[in-house]
Recover the amino acids of this structure.
């Protein structure tokens, strides 16, 4: 017998079968206190929850100040107790956080655009509703044009709203949405280019994808904001928001290309060969046979890229485009609301918005993944 | 049917080879023309705006201060030196962030798989919360709300009288090495080499004879025990310079600036959530049969984890893990939002502002990040090839 020390040398005692029995606190005994180590971990977790969760609830709800007109109402002296969140601050800054300095009498246009987008998006997300093709065309093709003219104005008697004044959550949504609808087609083209049989096209696609994926988004934004204007004729004055959009789209497209490539690689060769045997050319083979299958496979990946894109929009504040986070930072500078709790209140509010959107999207991605897996395993 | 003549009758513009050649030539011409137009425009624009050209500016005096530098630097140094200062600061925060994020990420990833219901939920909550908040949001939160609202130096929070926390940073004791301490350094160096050799020898012996050797414990002794013994023998030539409050500020100790701490906290907490998910997926990817086979062999739970589960899980974990390391390094450029002097902040930020040479500076900055990325992926591919399943 070798002397390998970790191999058992004798048989263990046969243990009697476990008899299932209903016990009091069965859940706690089985899942929380089934061993000394687990009991210690449970206690440690409880302490952690008590230290984090309870103060958070107290701050956000119990000790919060709900009404007030200025910083004075959010001071412990005037409230008469320890002060939590200062919600009047959010109330006062709500328009700035949502619309930036978009002209106030025109803000209904933003709301109407949101409503139109929501009406078109909701049926697109629910798998049971038919006419997905028409719906997708309306949402991805028509809606952006309508939204553009509606938000920018200057036509049909609508007042012109300079993008310089846009800000807050509006800008966050505009950048994410534009990034999403432009990066998907561009990403598909790049993915096809990377797998193309044409050496020049393939090399260019690889170079493009690896360049943008290898650098931080902020350098891309700087590239678009400070470097790009040098490369264009001096008389072309490109809008600041548009420059940022170009950067975001190029960056997102490179990541999207890699997601789509994963889907393309998962399609069996037989599908390509069958399409060729049917006499389909390259574009018809891709458009009618390969891409519909490949894109379905990578829907969760695409939604995950959208989530990253949505979070990454916050970086535009570094190039002086004031999105939700940028407006929040600007609002902190207002001395009429300077209290010890203003910062925490602002972060709590913005965090709630970012979290709900990101969480909803990730839950949707999980849902789609489950549906997809169910249909594949069938 | 005469296929040969039918093929000859196909017009030349329907020949696939001709078509692909034409398409690629057209694409190349269009891109070259665009590049040419870009160069012409750039030339005209630079001349019109009276901005310098070329990389000569790197030798000019920068003339601005930097609030954290690993190498000697003052305002009369050149832009080239500033570049180096920034690069080192980036690498510093990235290296420490990677180590901390890995530890935190592994702990949380394993906690998510714990049989303890409460602990698993707690870890899950952490991951959900952190992953759905933008990393810049988190960095600003740490910087403005947490570190920014700390008391001033005179009301510093003191931890055991050794570490002081205030709104100017965290001041920790500084180690002071006396001359004799160099022997402990040599001992450490010796320990590193001996343990590397020992590991190699133990592996060969195990493969030949099946005899295990307690490599881990021996290496631990060589790396930590040996230097400590040498320190004791040489009369402990190591002391700590504790920070002391003098007037309005601290003297002695090492001050970690709040910008550094906020960036480090933000990057660590954010990346750890992603690493936790990777670790969880990696461990779940090891089939149950492997764990069961290990316990059937009589391995204890700990040994089964170390010898059977972890090596297989690592194969799944390592590639996405490197991706996260890269992401952390790239995200460290967000330092510019809070004023930590990393490569991006001092070079693409301040230096670009002062010289206006956007093309050169952004190109250099992008090239640095790109080289880090490409270098990592080359190393990654090498490592992947090494640990990939070998089918015999």
């Amino acid at each position: 017998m070798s002397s390998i020390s970790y191999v058992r040398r004798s048989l263990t005692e046969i243990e009697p079968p476990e008899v299932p029995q209903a016990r009091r606190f069965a859940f706690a005994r089985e899942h929380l206190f089934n061993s000394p180590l687990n009991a210690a971990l449970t206690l440690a977790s409880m302490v952690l929850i008590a230290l984090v969760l309870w103060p958070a609830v107290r701050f956000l709800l119990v000790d919060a100040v709900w009404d007030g007109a200025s910083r004075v109402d959010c001071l412990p002296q005037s409230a008469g107790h320890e002060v939590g969140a200062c919600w009047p601050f959010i109330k006062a800054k709500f328009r700035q956080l949502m619309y930036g300095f978009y002209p106030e009498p025109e803000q209904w246009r933003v709301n109407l655009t949101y409503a139109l987008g929501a009406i078109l998006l909701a049926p697109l997300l629910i798998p049971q509703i038919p006419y997905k093709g028409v719906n997708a065309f309306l949402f991805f093709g028509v809606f952006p044009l309508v939204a553009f003219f509606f938000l920018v104005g200057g036509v049909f008697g609508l007042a012109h709203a300079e993008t310089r004044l846009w800000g807050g959550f509006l800008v966050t949504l505009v950048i994410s949405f534009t990034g999403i609808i432009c990066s998907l087609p561009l990403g598909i083209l790049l993915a096809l280019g990377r797998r193309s049989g044409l050496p020049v096209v393939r090399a260019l696609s690889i170079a493009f994808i690896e360049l943008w994926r290898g650098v931080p988004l902020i350098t891309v934004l700087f590239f678009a904001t400070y470097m790009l204007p040098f490369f264009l004729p001096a008389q072309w004055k490109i809008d600041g928001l548009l420059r940022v959009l170009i950067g975001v789209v190029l960056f997102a497209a490179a990541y999207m290309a890699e997601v789509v490539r994963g889907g393309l690689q998962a399609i069996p060769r037989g599908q390509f060969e069958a399409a060729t045997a049917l006499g389909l050319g390259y574009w018809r083979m891709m458009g009618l046979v390969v891409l519909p299958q490949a894109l379905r496979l990578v829907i969760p990946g695409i939604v995950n890229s959208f989530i990253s894109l949505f979070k990454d929009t916050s970086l535009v504040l570094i190039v002086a485009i004031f999105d939700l986070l940028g407006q929040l930072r600007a609002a902190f500078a207002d001395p009429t609301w300077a209290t010890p709790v203003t910062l925490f209140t602002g972060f709590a509010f913005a965090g709630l918005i970012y979290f709900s959107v990101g969480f909803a999207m990730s839950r949707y991605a999980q849902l789609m993944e489950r549906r997809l897996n169910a249909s594949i395993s069938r | 049917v005469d296929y040969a003549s039918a093929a000859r009758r196909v017009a030349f513009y329907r020949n696939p080879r001709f078509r692909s050649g034409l398409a690629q030539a057209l694409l190349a011409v269009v891109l070259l023309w665009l590049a040419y137009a870009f160069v012409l425009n750039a030339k005209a624009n630079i001349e019109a705006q009276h901005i310098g050209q070329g990389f000569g500016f790197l030798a000019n005096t920068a003339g601005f201060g930097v609030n954290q530098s690993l190498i000697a630097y003052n305002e009369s140094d050149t832009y080239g030196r500033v570049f180096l200062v920034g690069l080192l600061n980036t690498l510093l925060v990235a290296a420490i962030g990677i180590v901390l994020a890995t530890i935190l990420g592994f702990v949380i990833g394993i906690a998510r798989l714990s049989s303890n219901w409460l602990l698993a939920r707690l870890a899950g909550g952490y991951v959900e919360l952190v992953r759905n908040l933008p990393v810049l949001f988190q960095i600003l939160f740490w910087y403005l709300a947490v570190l920014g609202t700390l008391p001033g130096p005179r009301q510093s929070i003191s931890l055991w009288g050794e570490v002081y926390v205030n709104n100017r940073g965290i001041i920790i004791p500084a180690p002071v090495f006396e001359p004799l301490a160099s022997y402990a350094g040599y001992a450490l160096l010796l320990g590193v080499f001996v343990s590397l050799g020992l590991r190699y020898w133990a592996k060969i012996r195990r493969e030949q004879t099946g005899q295990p050797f307690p490599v881990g414990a021996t290496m631990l002794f060589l790396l930590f025990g040996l230097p400590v013994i040498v320190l004791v023998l040489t009369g402990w030539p190591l002391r700590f310079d504790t920070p002391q409050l003098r007037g309005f500020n601290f003297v002695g100790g090492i001050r970690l600036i709040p910008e550094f701490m906020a960036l480090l906290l933000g990057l660590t907490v954010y990346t750890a959530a992603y690493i936790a998910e990777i670790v969880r997926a990696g461990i779940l990817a090891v089939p149950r049969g492997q764990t069961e086979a290990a316990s059937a062999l009589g391995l204890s739970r700990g040994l089964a984890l170390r010898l059977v589960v972890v090596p297989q899980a690592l194969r799944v974990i390592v590639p996405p893990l490197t991706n996260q390391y890269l992401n952390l390094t790239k995200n460290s450029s967000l330092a510019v939002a809070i004023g930590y002097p990393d490569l991006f902040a001092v070079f693409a930020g301040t230096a670009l502002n002062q010289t206006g040479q956007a093309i050169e500076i952004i190109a250099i900055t992008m090239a640095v990040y790109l080289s880090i990325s490409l270098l990592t992926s080359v190393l990654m591919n090498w490592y992947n090839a090494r640990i990939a399943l070998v089918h015999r």
In short: Chain A touches chain B through 66 residues (CB under 8 Å). Chain A has a mean pLDDT of 84. Chain A is about 70% helix and 0% strand. The radius of gyration of chain A is 28 Å.
